[in-house]
Automatic annotation (TrEMBL), chains A, B:
Domain Pyruvate carboxyltransferase: 5-257
KW Manganese (keyword) present: yes
Official protein name in the record: Aldolase catalytic domain-containing protein
Gene3D superfamilies, sorted: Aldolase class I
C-alpha cells in the first residue's frame, strides 16, 4: 500500500498560519534539503498571493513568494518538487511566470465550494503556463451533497490534475473520509485525489491512512504537524509508515531535532482542548484561536459554554 | 454507534506508570466525581498487586490498593464503577475481599499470551468472589496466530466477562485492529471484547473507533491521554465522540483544566518522537523511556540509529 502515493509537505505554508511565516531562510533551506533526502515528493514553500491585493505593509517572503527570491534561496533543485498555494481573488496573474522560468512545479488553488468556477479559471491559467495544478476544496465537512455534484461537473471538464478533500475544521473521522473519497472517485474518476487533514481530534494521520487505503494519492502533511490551530498530519508519521523504499525517516528526524522542538516552544499548534472542541463541533478554529490568545486560554469549561451557547452559535454561523 | 459501549478510564492505573502513582487524594476524588458526572462507566483506580510480593519499601496506595483506604477515599459510590488491575504472580489471593465487602466492582488480569492459563486461574477466583472480570492480553502485536488459538480454547471455558486486545507497543493501525477484532469475535463469540490502545503513532483514538465499529464494547482511555510513554486514547475524545446521551464532556474538561495541564508540566507522556519510533518498530517503549530520562533525550537521529542497529535489536529481542 502506498507505492503510488506522493507526500506534499505543507510545513511552510500551513505552518506559516501559526507564526505569520516567521521562518528563517536557514530553516526553509534545511527543510528543503531534508525533505529531498527523505524522498518526500513535494514541498509547499508558501503562498503566491499578491502583496498589493492584500494591502500588505510589510514584506513576508513565504506569504508572497517571489521567483527571484526563490531562485536565490534554492539555487539548485534536488529531489523534491516545489508548490505554492493561491487564494481566489488574492492572486495577480501578472505575478505568475511560465513554469520553465520558475522554481515552482505546481500551483494549488484553495477555494470554497461556491467559488469552484473561479478556482477552475485560475487552474486553467496555471495549467496553460505549464504548471501541475490542484483544486483544494476547503471546509468539505460543511458542503451539501448537491453543491458538490454541481462542482464536480465543472471539475470534470477542467485540466486540473488533482482534486483535494480538505478537512479544514478537523471534524471528519476515517469513516467520513472513506465516504467522501468514494463519492469523489465515482464522480470524477479521471482525476487524481488529494487529502489535507487537521489534527483537532487526533485523527489527521488516521484520516490520511483511510484516504490512502481508498485510492487517494496526494497526501498533505507537515513536519511535527506544524499547521494552523491543531496542525496537520505529521510528515514523520507518513514517512515512517508508508511502505515505499524511497522514504527515509532520518532526515525528517534531523529537521525536528534541529528546528521544530524550539519552534514549538515559541509557537503553539497541535492537540489543544479548544481546538478539539471546535473540531467536535465542526466549526472554524478562529474562535478557539482567539481564545488561546486571551488571558482565559486555559479555561476550557468556560470556552465550551461559550461556543455551545445559542447566541455564540448564531454569531459564528453568520460569519 | 456506541450505544452499548462502556468507557473504562485508566488515568490512575496507566498514568501511574508515568509518575510512580504520585497522585494526590484530592485528584483521585476529583477524577472519580468528574467521571461519574460525565457518565463514564468505569474508573480503574490502580493496581491491586501485593506490596509483599513486590518487596515494596514505601507505601504506594494506588499501586497497592487497600480496601479500607479506598472506603475512606470514596465513602459513597456514584455512577462510575471501580476496577483494579492485577499482574500474574504479583497478586496475593488473601488480599482480595469478597465483592460485597469491597468498593471494587471489577478486577482485571493483565497477562502475556504464555500466561493465559495462570491469568484464567486468577479470573476464576475473582469471579467466584463476585467480581466482574477481564483478561487483558498484552503485546498482542507480537503474538503468533497459533498461540492465540490455543489461548482462545482456554478462554472459552472460563467465566471471564471481557477479553481485551491490548496494543502495548502502540504499533497497530485501524486495519490491524479490525483484523484482530474479527478474529477474536469469530473464535470467542460468547465473550465481550475490550480495547486498550497506546498513542505512539497518534492512532490510539482511531484504533479505539475501529474497535468500536467492529463490535468491541469496553473502551479503555485516560483523561488527557495520561498513560505510560505515548499514553492512551483520550477520555475526552471518546466522551465527545460517542453518540450516547448519557455522556457529558464538561466534567472531563473540568478535570483537565484543574489538574492535567499542571501534571503534564511535571510529568511527560504523549506523542514524543522516541515513542513514535518504538511504535513504528513494534517494540516495548522501555528503551525510549530510558532515553527520555538521559541527557540525550532530544537526539532523535542518534536514538533512531541506536534502536535500528543490529546489535541493539538483538539486545532488545533477548529481553
Amino acid at each position: 500500500m502506498g507505492q503510488h502515493c506522493k507526500i506534499l509537505d505543507c510545513t511552510i505554508r500551513d505552518g506559516g498560519l501559526v507564526n505569520n511565516w516567521d521562518f528563517s531562510i536557514e530553516f526553509v533551506q534545511d527543510l528543503y534539503n531534508g525533505l529531498s533526502a527523505a524522498g518526500v515528493e513535494y514541498m509547499e514553500i508558501g503562498y503566491k498571493n499578491s502583496p498589493k491585493l492584500l494591502n500588505a505593509t510589510e514584506p513576508n517572503p513565504w506569504r508572497f513568494l517571489d521567483d527571484n527570491f526563490l531562485k536565490e534561496i534554492i539555487p539548485e533543485k534536488k529531489f523534491t518538487k516545489l508548490s505554492a498555494l493561491v487564494d481566489i481573488g488574492r492572486v495577480d496573474p501578472d505575478d505568475i511566470l511560465p513554469r520553465e522560468q520558475s522554481v515552482l512545479d505546481m500551483i494549488r488553488v484553495a477555494c470554497y465550494i461556491r467559488e469552484v468556477d473561479k478556482g477552475l479559471e485560475l487552474v486553467q491559467m496555471f495549467h496553460d503556463l505549464g504548471y501541475e495544478t490542484s483544486l483544494n476544496i476547503m471546509a468539505l465537512s460543511s458542503v451539501p451533497e448537491k453543491k458538490l455534484i454541481e462542482a464536480f461537473e465543472l471539475v470534470q471538464n477542467s485540466p486540473v490534475d488533482v482534486v483535494y478533500i480538505v478537512d479544514s475544521f478537523g471534524s471528519l473521522d476515517p469513516a467520513d473520509i472513506e465516504h467522501q473519497v468514494k463519492k469523489f472517485k465515482e464522480m470524477i474518476p479521471n482525476k487524481q485525489l488529494g487529502i489535507h487533514t487537521h489534527n483537532n481530534m487526533q485523527l489527521a494521520f488516521a484520516n490520511t491512512l483511510a484516504a490512502m487505503k481508498n485510492g487517494v494519492t496526494f497526501l498533505d502533511s507537515s513536519v511535527y504537524g506544524m499547521g494552523r490551530a491543531a496542525g496537520n498530519c505529521h510528515t514523520e508519521l507518513l514517512v515512517s509508515y508508508i511502505q515505499k523504499t524511497s522514504y527515509e525517516l532520518k532526515p525528517v528526524l534531523g529537521i525536528i531535532e534541529k528546528h521544530m522542538l524550539e519552534m514549538r516552544q515559541n509557537w503553539e499548534w497541535g492537540y489543544i482542548i479548544p481546538y478539539m472542541i471546535s473540531g467536535v463541533l465542526n466549526e472554524h478554529p478562529r474562535v478557539a484561536m482567539a481564545y488561546r490568545d486571551s488571558a482565559d486560554r486555559d479555561k476550557f469549561v468556560d470556552f465550551y459554554d461559550k461556543v455551545t451557547s445559542p447566541e455564540i452559535a448564531l454569531a459564528t454561523a453568520s460569519k
